[in-house]
């Protein structure tokens, strides 16, 4: 996993609640055995029509949102299926940070394992940025170490992330290697 | 006597391998179920870092998500074929038992675990699939994980987990005749929402839950994830131990007796405290039908689609109605369907098929409705055929298929076409879930069967022969 300490990028506002992982990456793309290359299928049926043409009314297809790396979304982002293909697709498309009022439990974990920062903020703040980002190109500056977001108006908003998740993200640690440091305890458990 | 504990706390404490202030606990995993879709990248990860599967003996694999439910000899989809071959190779390389497409134990992973007795009370069970919560019906702590976590469990047989909060969903009173476990869980999600369980493990309690068959309990626990909870469980009782008796992976004789005793001890103690408790009255629950694009968007059969002036998140509701091709305030019974799917890890067990067959018996599927039955496992299929259920379904005009996940998520050829409308016994009505542009209405097997015959939703309780 690639370490991430800070991130500055353009915001894409997706003002919908309960965005499920079936929308993030539809099932027909889960048959591949690789971990990479899923970005092209992200939000597939929202981005493309039945003939594979871009839907002009879906904002992510607009030029203004080219190169976005921060996703703003509604409550319960990533609900439904446990497919890790969802964070793989988001990451491969370019998203490194997702900001939402709440996340589904499995998705939250899956995002962290892939070096995506899931940030939980209150609905009001997100709503404000959402509106702004719908009107004009907007960037946010995220400082994971100090747990702060700076917006284009210079406002500083702090956010919470559990310390152990933060530590893993900023170091890009391999979790299995960390766990295997407790190998003696696992073995002891197995014989008890 | 120590402090009264919930079953959740009891199982948790027994499985902690390592604990540290301010960090999640490292939990030991007793059973790791594996399928073809979420495992190839995990095995690849092991290979790249030169790691082995720590406990192949605690790991069990099957093929379910994209197996064809007819003509298995020829798999047309090359990418699917490759994925299944990869599972075969990985299992062979690491010495993992695999029930492949032609194995008598093959079936949906959450159906075969209990059927084989791999699922047992008190176990910690994980699988790269969100419906792993199903196994909670037996008083196991079972939850879905992502592929990185699959790799972690393969390599270490453990997982880092934050201690969950406990949520008691108490169902007071008894369900009325013709109201099923599926209606109960749909009503719970409709009432409390699709995220009320986030961060919690649910325990379902109360008389109506105790009264459910083990199959019914699996249906309820299965959809815990649709309420936001990674896991949902039910304390073991006599029904639980009776169900497991004689199963392939359950010991017999004295060993069984001892185990069964210890299983009963796991039940939540009198007076144990939960972090949150919600209650629902079973008597108030009618057969349910989902109208929208998440499982919380659900109403009783006597109900209507929402009034846009009376909803929160109006835009989301508008979008859902538009996707579903429905009007606001539209009576549920006026919704005509063209597909019926009876199957999935929610409702594909023998008991589900028997109940659906009792509605179908001697009747015909409505013209222009395509109806399929996909048993949850090969063994269920065999048992159903022994009882003649296949003939009842076929005579009525249903297709009778081989076991798999099938039209629940349409990874194989069982797809609802764009604009098609399906009465489905599965668990998710997300946009495109059963095929791009498909429209899903979640219902019980009985309600699906009745819809197949009438061509639109009807209150199955008014139907002759309704099992009570």
Instruction: Give the mean pLDDT of chain B.
Output: 97
- At the fourth level of CATH, the homologous superfamily of chain A is Aconitase, domain 4
Strand content of chain A is 15-25%
Q: What's the mean pLDDT score of chain A? A: 96
**Proportion of residues in helical segments of chain A:** 25-40%
Strand order, largest beta sheet of chain A: 4-3-2-1-5-6-7
Provide the CATH topology of the largest domain in chain B: Aconitase, domain 3
- Poorly predicted regions of chain B: none
Strand arrangement, major sheet of chain B: 5-4-3-6-7
Number of strands of chain A: 7
How many helices of chain A does DSSP assign? Answer: 8
Largest sheet of chain B: 5 strands, parallel
Distance between the termini of chain A: 34 Å
Distance, first to last CA of chain B = 42 Å
**Domain unit count of chain A:** 1
Label the CATH architecture of the largest domain in chain B: 2-Layer Sandwich
CATH architecture of chain A: Alpha-Beta Barrel
* CATH C-level name of chain A: Alpha Beta
Function (chain A): Catalyzes the isomerization between 2-isopropylmalate and 3-isopropylmalate, via the formation of 2-isopropylmaleate.
Pfam families (chain A): Aconitase_C
EC number (chain A): 4.2.1.33
Catalytic activity (chain A): (2R,3S)-3-isopropylmalate = (2S)-2-isopropylmalate
């Amino acid at each position: 996993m690639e370490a991430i300490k800070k991130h500055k990028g353009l915001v894409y506002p997706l003002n919908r609640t309960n965005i499920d992982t079936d929308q993030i990456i539809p099932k027909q793309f889960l048959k591949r055995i690789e971990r990479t290359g899923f970005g092209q299928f992200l939000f597939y049926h929202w981005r493309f029509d039945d003939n594979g043409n871009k839907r002009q009314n879906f904002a992510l297809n607009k030029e203004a949102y080219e190169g976005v790396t921060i996703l703003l979304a509604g409550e319960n982002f990533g609900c439904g299926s446990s497919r890790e293909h969802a964070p793989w697709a988001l990451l491969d498309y370019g998203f490194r940070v997702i900001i939402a009022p709440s996340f589904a439990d499995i998705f939250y974990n899956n995002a962290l394992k892939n070096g995506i920062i899931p940030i939980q903020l209150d609905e009001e703040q997100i709503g404000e940025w959402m509106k702004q980002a719908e009107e004009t190109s907007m960037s946010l500056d995220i400082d994971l170490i100090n747990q702060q977001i700076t917006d284009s108006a210079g406002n500083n908003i702090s956010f919470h992330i559990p310390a152990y998740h933060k530590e893993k993200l900023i170091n890009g640690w391999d979790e299995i290697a960390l766990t295997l440091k407790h190998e003696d305890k696992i073995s002891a458990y197995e014989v008890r | 006597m120590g402090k009264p504990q919930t079953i959740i706390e009891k199982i948790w404490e027994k499985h902690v391998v390592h604990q540290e202030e301010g960090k999640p606990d490292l939990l030991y995993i007793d059973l790791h179920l594996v399928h073809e879709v979420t495992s190839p990248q995990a095995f690849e990860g092991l290979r790249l870092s030169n790691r082995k599967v720590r406990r192949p003996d605690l790991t069990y694999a099957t093929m379910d998500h994209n197996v064809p439910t007819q003509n298995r000899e020829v798999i047309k989809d090359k990418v699917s074929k490759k994925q299944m071959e990869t599972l075969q190779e990985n299992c062979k390389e690491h010495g993992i038992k695999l029930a492949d497409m032609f194995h008598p134990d093959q079936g949906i992973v959450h159906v075969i675990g209990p059927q084989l007795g791999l699922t047992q009370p008190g176990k910690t069970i994980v699988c790269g699939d969100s419906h792993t919560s199903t196994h909670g019906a037996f008083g196991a702590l079972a939850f879905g994980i992502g592929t990185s976590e699959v790799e972690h469990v393969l390599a270490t047989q453990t997982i880092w987990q934050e201690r969950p909060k406990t949520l008691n969903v108490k169902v007071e009173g008894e369900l009325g005749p013709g109201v099923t476990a599926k209606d109960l869980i749909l009503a719970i999600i409709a009432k409390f929402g699709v995220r009320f369980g986030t961060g919690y493990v649910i325990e379902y309690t109360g008389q109506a839950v105790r009264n459910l068959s083990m199959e019914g309990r699996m249906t309820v626990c299965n959809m815990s994830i649709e309420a936001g909870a990674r896991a949902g469980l039910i304390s073991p009782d006599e029904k639980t131990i009776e169900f497991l008796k004689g199963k392939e992976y359950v010991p017999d004789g004295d060993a069984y007796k001892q185990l069964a005793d210890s299983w009963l001890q796991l039940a939540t103690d009198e007076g144990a405290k939960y972090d949150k408790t919600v209650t629902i009255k079973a008597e108030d629950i009618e057969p349910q039908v989902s109208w929208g694009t998440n499982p919380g968007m659900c109403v009783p059969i006597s109900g209507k689609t929402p009034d846009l002036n009376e909803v929160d998140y109006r835009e989301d509701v508008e979008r859902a109605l538009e996707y579903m091709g429905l009007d606001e305030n539209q009576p549920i019974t006026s919704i005509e369907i063209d597909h019926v799917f009876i199957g999935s890890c929610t409702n594909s067990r023998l008991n589900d098929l028997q109940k659906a067959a009792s509605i179908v018996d001697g009747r015909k599927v409505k013209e222009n409705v395509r109806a399929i039955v996909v048993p949850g496992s090969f063994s269920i299929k065999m048992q159903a055929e022994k009882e003649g259920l296949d003939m009842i379904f076929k005579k009525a005009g249903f297709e009778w298929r081989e076991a798999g996940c099938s039209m629940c998520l349409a990874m194989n050829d069982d797809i609802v076409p764009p604009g098609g409308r399906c009465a489905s016994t599965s668990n998710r009505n997300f946009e495109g879930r059963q095929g791009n542009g498909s429209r899903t209405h979640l219902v019980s097997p009985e309600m699906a069967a009745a819809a197949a015959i009438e061509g639109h939703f009807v209150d199955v309780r008014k139907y002759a022969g309704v099992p009570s």
